[in-house]
Model the fold of this input.
Amino acid sequence: MVSLCASLWERRMSKKSKEAEQLTIEGTSETEILARLAERVDRAVTLIAQLRRENEELGAKVETLEGELKDAVGARDAASSRAAEAEARAAELESDGSSRADEMEAELERLKSERDAIRSRVEGMLEKLEGLEVED
Done:
């Protein structure tokens, strides 16, 4: 990024120096003009090569970040799926637990009423036994 800014600054400065060079071209030899032109071409070639390298580096970074993003999205989706499954399972267990509690409560009431019935039968039998003992 720094080199990109530097290259942009270099381009801007070269435009300003280009204007100054054009003013000094008059009265210079053809060899000097060709040398300056060759120097400018060399700088342009170097700049283009540098920009291509930076572009390739940035492209590689983009690919890496896209891969990381894809992995992160996949992980997020998997986590969301697991969370939804857990919520569904929790709701199912809550429903099962509630119905199971209702079943157990009904069973408890049934056993209590059965116990009361047995108690009253036993009391009735004890009263009959007491009645038999008194008659003797």
Summary: The two ends are 118 Å apart (CA to CA). DSSP finds two helices and no strands in the chain. The helical segments are 2-25, 30-135. The chain has one domain: 2-100.
